[in-house]
Amino acid sequence: MDAAFLTDTDRDTLRHSVLCSAMNDGEMSNILATGTVTTLEANSFLFEQGDPAKNLFIILDGWAQISRLERDGSTTLIAAFHKGESLAEVAALLGRPYPGSGQAMTPLKVLSINGSMLLDIMQNNRAILAQSLASVYQKLHSLIEDVEWLKSRTIRERLAKFLLDETKTGSFGNEARLPYSKSLIAAKIGTSPQQLSRTFSELQQFGVRISGQSVVIDNRTMLKSMLQKT
């Protein structure tokens, strides 16, 4: 790979990513020598469900999602990933088909890494293997938490938690640009786009204002108190 495609920020992102943080300089050089930097426009596919998995991906900039096409033709959002996170590790390392489709949610820049090559590095550096297992565990734990929330909380509570997670700094006047479209937010919290719009209206009394893809939480404490009372 032409290292000129990587900025200093890209290199810092790789160094601090779960997969690469345990690598020494030589191992990192091997990754960069054989990897490929890919840039995608929003809504473009990084890989598609059922394709043979040869590569895994580390996000250098932007947001990506993994979704599954169900038998009834509907699409289920599995998870979203952002800068520094990795996708499709297990499928690429085991040489299995991708279990879902990877798609850019925003303009996206990723480093593609060959799974077989990474497996060779892991055999010589157990710290990297441990980091990879930690990455898979974190994702599994997050998915379990999502399922628990879907089963035990109301739509209003699910949306409130989602918004609090997306605007984590400060206590007042928090503003963020949502990486999801409204339809994907609805899928993420297990509701319909129509119900989502009604729920956003309900949250206005808790200081939530929405305009296009921008959301402002005037008072995080107030919104958190709504969750704590339930």
TL;DR of this structure?
The protein is an alpha+beta fold and 230 residues long. The chain has helices at 8-16, 25-34, 89-94, 115-124, 126-152, 155-166, 182-189, 193-202, 220-228; strands at 36-40, 45-47, 55-61, 64-69, 75-81, 86-87, 101-104, 108-114, 172-177, 208-211, 214-219. The strands form 3 sheets. It has a 4-stranded antiparallel sheet with strand order 1-8-3-6.
Commentary on this structure:
This protein is an alpha+beta fold. It is built from nine helices and eleven strands. The protein has helices at residues 8-16, 25-34, 89-94, 115-124, 126-152, 155-166, 182-189, 193-202, 220-228, and strands spanning 36-40, 45-47, 55-61, 64-69, 75-81, 86-87, 101-104, 108-114, 172-177, 208-211, 214-219. The strands form three sheets. It has a four-stranded antiparallel beta sheet. Helix 4 packs across helix 5 and helix 6 packs antiparallel against helix 9. The longest helix is centred in the middle third of the chain and has 27 residues, at 126-152. It is elongated. The mean pLDDT is 83.
